[in-house]
Design a protein that fits this description.
The complex is a heterodimer of chains A (389) and B (365). Chain A is α/β, with parallel strands linked by helices and 389 residues long. Chain A is built from twelve helices and 13 strands. Classes of the chains: A alpha/beta (389), B mainly alpha (365).
């Protein structure tokens, strides 16, 4: 008797397993799904939101032999009074259920970004289908839906291009959504997003270009852009840069250009608060790299010539970085340089006092920048071969 | 039914680790910001203290379960009255763990399956293991599952290394202060103190002397794991964002991307969590059933399973939404934790040791 009851339960349990395990109850089959690869949101003239998305067509993806005539994707859109409603409108045109797990890119049109993206971000963070590891872009001077339509010759799916470009120019991918959320939740700091724009390509075709960084204020409204090199300087300060190419003209040494390729970066930000809310910030940037080109009469195998190049780069770059910081401070007044969190880390008690007025203090913060480059290699040749002629 | 000290260690570990790591980190970070790890340390100390007391009262009468020795210590009637809140707690928490399990699986995996189906499958497994082997089987499962959950957690830690930003832990203490740290510690502490359940388990140990080391080590190991998870959540998401995620460690795992190759491994954590919750639920279910049988003087304790199963299932259907479960968690922290897990054990410990001393004294005299 005692041994039979467990056996009966065991049989019942295994029988019920057959019911539960034989089919996929909840997940739809692959043929019922459509993969959303990239999407965009735009503000239309009548105030409605237009959402477009690039969908993957699996049957056309496996065409071997390079470019086929048929594109492996199509674009669909919907418009509504809110972000959510516009998606509903789009879904009315789709035969399958949208899966967002593979979406890597989301483009926001400039008009929408200027009006503010708070509502959109709310809809974004609520949706569990959105991966945290995603990039959100601002389409500079354009509509997000247009970026989706620009073909890119190297990639079958054009939206993959902007991620790859971002990585290829030394940024990190998949982090802009999270960093936007982090910056906007951090007291005092302002969020940013990477920006792309559409430029004429080499042929008649248009192409996507990585422009730089779009800056937002505390109300989630777009206030301006940093171009590519300025955005790189900002990333350098924030310790996020992977590599950077710099070029400098040497008019006194034959007028040519010396180019350096930097691969190692360091950044040290120290702050001090004195008296009546006077904040001073000192930034020391270090970099290591090699000479990429040398069109001057300098012989870089000589110690003093290399030192001269280094000094010139240090002085010039320091000035450029300072200019970028001034631009951010005076023109936009948005703290996208992490100064507020640096102050909080280094002077937590003083920060408690001044954090309410940070918006008025930030534009007047005194910033000094010093750059220290170490050029370790000069390339495969000593003095430029051209001079030997 | 017998369990060894080694099994007790793993049981305490899985009991304390999984649910605490998923549910209590977010409130702790919300209260104490980047100093939440200090909160966890405070919570661990509270947990260790309550565990110590629980083992000490059990060792006063090592051959009896909590149900029996409460009545021995406090007398039959007073003992029964004291047992009622504890008993209600055990039944309620069994149902609610079942519900929280179903909720999490519902959100993370099966958003269209009816909730009760998910609960019933788990309940069936729990009823099966309790009715066939009782504590022996649960102990064996714990021995197997505990190490797996440690390996899984290590995996998560290793894979998220490149997303760590150490400066997110700073400034230490300045942004929060003592009161928020203590406040943040209460929630995790109330969950870690669930190791109180060992009062029902020590009676099944052939060598009760090992109970102290096993339980304390189990709580310590679980606390260290929770501490690690908390620090990682802060390192990846920073204090402001982490406090707003419902399941922050789950979000960390969805964020993992190694070489653009290892991604979307969130199903691992769901799996780890499911097997962890299985142990916890089975333990509670066993304790409730066995306790009921002892309290109501059933000749065969397994009969009470059929009484407990429908009650537990009913309770798991009660919460209307996640708000209700959060309210219960607050109730647990504010009322059950101080009364049932701290107050009553201390009372029993004091009365029990006085009586024992008195009795040995009278014997020697």
């Amino acid at each position: 008797m005692t041994s039979r009851i467990p056996r009966i339960i065991a049989i019942l349990c295994s029988a019920s397993c057959i019911v539960f395990l034989t089919g996929c109850w909840d997940r739809e089959e692959l043929s019922d799904r459509v993969f959303d690869l990239a999407a965009s949101a735009d503000l239309q003239q009548d105030g409605t939101i237009l959402t477009s998305a690039q969908f993957f067509i699996p049957s056309r993806a496996n065409t071997t032999g390079g470019a086929s005539a048929e594109k492996p994707f199509f674009i669909e859109s919907g418009s509504g009074h809110s972000y959510f409603e516009s998606i509903q409108m789009m879904r009315q045109k789709l035969s399958r259920i949208v899966t967002r797990g593979h979406r890597r890119n989301f483009y926001i049109g400039e008009d929408l970004a200027k009006k503010g993206v708070y509502d959109m971000m709310d809809a974004f963070t609520r949706d569990p289908g959105n991966r945290i590891r995603m990039d959100i872009w601002v389409a500079k001077g354009n509509r997000g839906s247009e970026v989706l339509e620009v073909p890119y010759p190297l990639e079958k799916i054009p939206s993959v291009a902007s991620v790859k470009i971002h990585r290829a120019v030394g940024g990190s991918t998949g982090t802009s959504y999270l960093s936007f959320l982090l910056d906007s939740s951090d007291e005092g700091s302002c969020p940013t997003l990477p920006a792309v724009d559409i430029v004429p390509g080499a042929s008649s075709q248009r192409t996507i270009r990585f422009y730089g960084r779009a800056l937002f204020n505390r109300d989630y409204q777009l206030v301006g852009y940093l171009n590519f090199i300025e955005a790189s300087y900002r990333l350098w300060i924030l310790n996020g840069l992977k590599y950077l190419d710099l070029a400098e003209r040497f008019p006194d040494k034959g007028g040519g250009i010396v180019g350096v390729h930097l691969t190692q970066f360091g950044s040290k930000v120290t702050s001090s608060i004195s008296g009546a809310n006077k904040v001073k910030i000192q930034i020391v940037l270090t970099g290591g790299g090699q000479i990429g080109e040398n069109e001057t009469k300098l012989d870089l195998s000589k110690r003093e010539d290399l030192q001269l190049v280094q000094d010139r780069f240090n002085a010039k770059t320091s000035k450029y970085v300072e200019d970028m910081i001034k631009k951010v401070q005076k023109q936009y007044g948005t703290d996208v340089l992490g100064f507020s969190s640096t102050l909080n880390r280094q002077h937590p008690h003083a920060w408690e006092q001044i954090k309410g007025q940070w918006e008025t203090i930030f534009p007047n913060v005194e910033v000094t920048v010093s750059v220290h480059l170490k050029l370790k290699h000069i390339g495969l040749v000593g003095p430029a071969l051209i001079r030997e002629k | 039914m017998k369990i060894s000290g080694y099994q007790l260690f793993w049981l305490v570990y899985t009991l304390d680790y999984g649910k605490t790591a998923i549910f209590t980190i977010s409130p702790a970070i919300l209260a104490a910001k980047q100093d939440a790890w200090l909160s966890i340390i405070v919570a661990s100390l509270i947990g260790l203290a309550t565990t110590y007391i629980a083992v000490r009262i059990s060792l006063l009468h090592p051959k009896q379960t909590f149900i029996q020795y409460t009545q021995t210590i406090m007398g039959k009637w007073l003992g029964t009255i004291i047992l009622i809140p504890i008993f209600l707690m055990w039944i309620a928490i069994t149902g609610l763990i079942l519900r929280e399990f179903a909720d999490f699986v519902f959100i993370a995996l099966f958003s269209k399956t009816p909730l009760w189906t998910i609960s019933i499958i788990m309940l069936a497994a729990v009823v099966y293991i309790t009715s066939t082997g009782g504590l022996t089987s649960i102990g064996r499962c714990g021995e197997l599952i505990g190490p797996i959950s440690i390996i899984g957690s290590l995996l998560i830690i290793l894979l998220s290394v490149k997303d760590w930003h150490w400066f997110r832990l700073f400034p230490v203490y300045a942004n929060s202060g003592l009161l928020p740290i203590i406040k943040g510690s209460l929630f995790p502490a109330s969950f870690i103190a669930e190791s109180f359940m060992i009062v029902m388990l020590i009676a099944f140990m052939p060598q009760p002397k090992r109970a102290m080391a096993a339980s304390i080590l189990g709580v310590a190991a679980a606390s260290i794991s929770i501490l690690f998870i908390t620090v990682i959540v802060i390192l990846v998401f920073g204090p402001h964002l982490a406090g707003h995620f419902v399941y922050p460690i789950y979000s960390v795992v969805t964020y993992i991307s190694v070489m653009e190759f290892i991604q979307n491994i969130d199903v691992i954590i769901v799996l780890l969590w499911i097997i962890g919750i299985f142990i916890k639920l089975a333990l509670y279910f066993f304790v409730t059933s066995y306790g009921t049988a002892q309290l109501l003087r059933f000749p065969k304790w397994k009969k009470s399973i059929w009484l407990i199963t429908p009650i537990v299932f009913g309770i798991s259907l009660l919460p209307r939404n996640i708000d209700d479960t959060i309210n219960f968690a607050n109730f647990w922290r504010d009322v059950i934790f101080p009364v049932n897990l701290v107050g009553i054990p201390i009372l029993l410990w004091i009365v029990g040791s006085i009586r024992k001393k008195y009795r040995t004294n009278t014997k020697t005299v």
